[in-house]
């Protein structure tokens, strides 16, 4: 474990998800403890995207943006909102120079799959149709997310490919949740890792899928057998994360399907440890996410 990260482990709450409502409150409290970003170089606007139902979004517009990112928060499909994601969406906009559209998708267990995916797809279509208003062109829209949000981003890319939906320029997938089967080495063996462990990941999938196996690869992208025709991707993984091996496997299968991939396995890190901003490795992770997105959206 990176020593700068290890010093904070005792301050993290137990890796459990027995009560989603209580854990949402804990998650929100953690988010408020993170140093807030400087948004003076951008405008921040809350909007509502029409749909069935409507979807709340928060738009971060750097003064000279050159592309857009539909961004999906983490929280195991059961936690998180626009406010908890504010520190990260703003930092990503600053680091990349891209317009970031943060999505307040519906949460499980009240709204299991496919509710969140439908919300994200609604926003993706809205972003493509309103690219000019966002100050970008329709061919410069990426999708991305962290953890559960990364899984939703990967699923949305699959759905857009299958349905000939909006052209997605790039996938920015940070420690994504991709596989409900939990059969990889890291998923089986990381039973006592900080913040996220096997039991907590299993609970997240139960809430999201209603206690059933994934009904399609839109629910668990690792179940897709055909990954051809997907957008180029960046995958970031954490060494001590149950998702690690499914992330690496997905990256390799994308490469074998002819999809350009940048894969970075961050040594000494754990799932979500980039929230510890005092650690040098966390600052590098956030900067790299921004740089990867900036390169992907450039001319």
UniProtKB/TrEMBL annotation:
Gene3D superfamilies recorded: alpha/beta hydrolase
Alphabetic keyword roster: Hydrolase
Residue ranges constituting the Alpha/beta hydrolase fold-3 domain according to the UniProt record: 69-273
Molecular function GO terms recorded: hydrolase activity
Pfam families in the record: Abhydrolase_3
Signal peptide (UniProt feature, chain positions): none
Database matches in InterPro entries: AB_hydrolase_3, AB_hydrolase_fold, GDXG_lipolytic_enzyme
Keyword Hydrolase: yes
Name of protein: Acetyl esterase/lipase
